[in-house]
Amino acid sequence: MDGLAKCSANYVPLTPLTFIKRASMVYSERTSVIYGGVRFTWHQTYQRCCRLASSLRSLNIVKNNVVSVLAPNVPALYEMHFAVPMAGGVLNAINTRLDAKNIATILRHSEAKVFFVDFQYVPLASEALRLLMADLKEILDHKYEMPLVIVIDDIDKPTGIRLGKLEYEQLIRHGNPRYNGEEVEDEWDSIALNYTSGTTSAPKGVVYSHRGTFLSTMSLIQGWEMSTETVYLWSLPMFHCNGWTFTWGVAARGGTNVCIRNTSAREMYHGITTHNVTHMCCAPIVFNILLEAKPHERREITTKVNILTGGSPPPVALLEKMENLGFHVMHAYGLTEATGPALICEWQTKWNQLPRNEQAKLKSRQGVGILTLSDVDVKIKETMESVPSDGKTMGEIVLRGSSIMKGYLKDEKETAKAFHKGWFFTGDVGVIHPDGYLEIKDRSKDVIISGGENISSVELESVLFNHPNILEVAVVGMPHPRWGETPCAFVVLKNPTKEEEIMEFCKKNMPKFMVPKKRGKQNREALWYSVPKRTISFASVLRTLICDDRFWGLRCAAARNKTVRLLLCGIAGSVPKRTISFASVLRTLICDDRFWGLRCAAARNKTVRLLLCGIAGSKKGRLFGSNWILTGNSTQGGPSSSDSREIEPLRTQLRDLQEENERQQTGEEFRQADEERRRAEEEECRRVLDERRDKRLEKMTALVKQLSQSQHFPPPK
Fold first, then answer.
1. What one-character-per-residue DSSP string does 139-206 give?
2. pLDDT tens, position by position, 338-365
3. Phi, psi of 245 (to 5 degrees)
4. pTM, 2 dp
5. How far is Cα 21 from Cα 76, in angstroms, rounded to an integer?
6. b or e along 680-709 (b: 16 or more beta carbons within 10 Å of the residue's beta carbon)?
7. Beta bridge partners of 68
8. Are the C-beta atoms of residues 232 and 247 closer than 8 Å to each other?
9. Residue closest to 430 by CA, chosen among 359, 349, 364
């Protein structure tokens, strides 16, 4: 058998480019793309891809040349997923939520030869190109040339906006429709380049192969049971792992792509009902957009819509609400390095007999590995031992298979670090349930997931440290009703500084989605907390924690590190074995004035960040003097009746302490605060009067000078 050789008849490199060629023949007259009033068939889409690939070749795009694109979910971006690799190039779809500085960094690092820009992002692209040109001049890099810029005008309602001479439809018109594309010589060849965003100050370029994208696509369309009549709504950005490979997957099934420019409630409901959408992907944030739609935006959904969701695990209550609207939700787990979803929560028929809330809990799990993933496991990284399938023992989720990335572009060190002992380590902590399904319990990286975007708390801290009036800073993730999480900054100020000034500083130095947001008028809550310069150690704060019923669900097993032991020591001696995670306990910590001596410098480890997150996340703030003091609201949950008898003396002591604290506040502290406020107001009045006096003197001096130079008026004495 070993003598049987491979030849062109029995071996062809795997590539998703074969999907569109097949679709053009098998489903030639079926609608392939819908965008506003524009419709294409699969025959037309294939011809447009051939034309674009031909034009790219005429622009000297050759094998492994990077073609970058900054665009929303429009037909042009969909077509480039086939046309660019057909020309031998590597597609780099850039996150449209990045700022100009990050885009310039990506263009330089990827050495993009062509840069397609949607008309909507021309101002952003112009600034990125300006920064790129200035950077190249400064370092005198003659090896890299500026990319050729081509604007993508709106195909439905052209605007005429340009950035350079070329426009996308010109390339389509002048291309050769009979050009079949370059042959894929090796399935290990690169097809796409996607950059991780928000996890480091320098985003890493993740390279996909033709083989990896082909296998990942086949696994997902099978695991999601996509039929040949699929109508897919593009609510997921195509720049997210190439639309989780469904850019190629819809072509494989000969389905219909419903492209929308904005992920708004009106556009999504209109697309779903008008075109009878059957499938869509999104982050859990989109659930809130659909649920909070205004009456005039909402449409009645009469057919089942399958949703594949990823990112942070959706709450059970949110899944139930979506099911009631007519959506069938399936949860997946993945990351950029895994070519999108690597695990999918495959539904089992026997679960249909369970109550709705139990079904929702099962759906919130991350699930099992996709078919073409060789192996999935949860391991203890230090020993490389697999954890037992008990749903309790935690370890790091590891993956292995052909759908994993080739590696990081120009970064051999990080590539070797990611591929540890034959596995790809995800950085996510999880458990394996007895039925083999995985569930994420925590993240080993300090990452805030806001609206599907990864935000590094370390990166935000480094940016804020550059502000001249910030002495110390700690950034944590706090719950947000729309975005899931949002950054919250605890700062120690050198001098009094307004929140608006720091917000403007952030907007100038980081992408928009990384800037902390307000909660809205109904539940307005500042996401900046000024911490007084008073040194109290974290250990002493833990020892003075207020005892509360809610802590009694904390498992002793969570106390494996010194910080948690101190926490338990500060609360009480023995804790009953009731399963509530340490993170959930921290999120419900009672806020007390005593915490405000905690210095932000103590918040450098993850446990303390979680503590601060719990303090800031679930409580309302009021301004008192010059510091933020948080007032807590009670939440549900508590100990059993036997536990209540044991902690009743502690609760009595707690009430006495609170009453004493309130008496002190109503006396001397309030008088001091009023006195400080009056002094501050007097100083502000003096400052304003001084400024006005200086301005009057300047005007008088200028007037005297003008009169002295006049021929009609003698110099004043």
1. HT--SSPPPEEEEE--SSS-----SSSEEHHHHHHHS-TT--------TTSEEEEEE--SSSSS--EE
2. 999 999 999 899 998 998 878 878 887 8
3. 70, 5
4. 0.68
5. 18
6. eeeeeeeeeeeeeeeeeeeeeeeeeeeeee
7. 92, 115
8. no
9. 364
